[in-house]
Amino acid sequence: MSTDLFSPITMGDIKLANRMVMAPLTRNRADGHNAPHEINVTYYQQRATAGLIITEASQVSAEGVGYPGTPGIYSDKQVIGWKKVIDAVHAKGGRIFIQLWYCGRISHPDLLPENQTPVAPSAIQPEGEAVTLDGMKAYVMPRALKINEIADIVAQYKHAAEMAKQAGFDGIEVHAANGYLIDQFLRDGSNQRSDQYGGSVENRMHFLSDVLDAVIEVWPSNRVGVRLSPENSFNAMSDSNPREHFSYFVSQLNARNLAYLHVLEGDMMSKSASIDYRALRNHYNGLYMANNGYDKARADKSIHNGDSDLVAFGIPFLANPDLVARYQQNLVLNDADSSTFYGGTEQGYTDYPFFEQATTAEPA
Ligand code: PHB
Q: What is the pLDDT of residue 271?
């Protein structure tokens, strides 16, 4: 039998039941302490048949926050909340990594301790608006990090990696995509530093390398994934030569022996791609996880052709807790309700029906 989406795969020292990954999805339903609670346990457990779950982006410190209601992984209360999520996923035979996040300039003083100004590699104000508790507010001019402040943030990633281990996660994903702090360093539209953290591609990768060095002191490298988004314009991002620059970043990651490289291919905004992702993938020796708008047919073809080893699905998993079974048996899918993506209650979160429920429910 040839390899398909449902074939098991060995990732480092763990075996995944299939190649369908639940992509990280911000849902803004943590409790008032930014800790996971009961509804989050139910939500993740419902989706435990994924070969791997990557949690929603979770800030490494209170300073890393960029949105209301997102979970963190820096306090004891958050560790206790996550432990319940992890135990519930493991009880169903699932595997779960946590995505580590620091938003940088994609934040707002209203969301930060002492109303501090968001930080970034360079003082470049992003276009767009932050989500605050008082509604949308324009992003502010961020403060460029002083070189001696960078080690503090790296230490926050290390602390979060320790807390993730304490909680019992199977591994961690370093979020280096989508316009958040690490990506702000990687791409030249947001990084105009003239010290060793900016300028050349080597220097722009310095911060990601520091973060990886730190978290790999806590976790074996084969339990650490990295997510990149070379040409995603979301969060006012740009780069002068994403193909060339990301070929360099990807080839530098080879030496790390990571669990996987996760790539958001193309642009979330225009839904188009200009880079040849097979060519990018060819720079990488380890497992490659593809993401961004894949459906079953495209994912199967990608795995079959060796364009990817794993495929991460976002919206399909959000709306179909039993997505694996539905794809395997060619069952019809639930539609996603975008009005309940961010924040709210069980509605649009834990009430998407499993196929059996959908088909055996009494007519209204
Ligand atoms: C979002 O909250 O819209 C969001 C968060 C993290 C991402 C992408 C989007 O990587």
A: 86
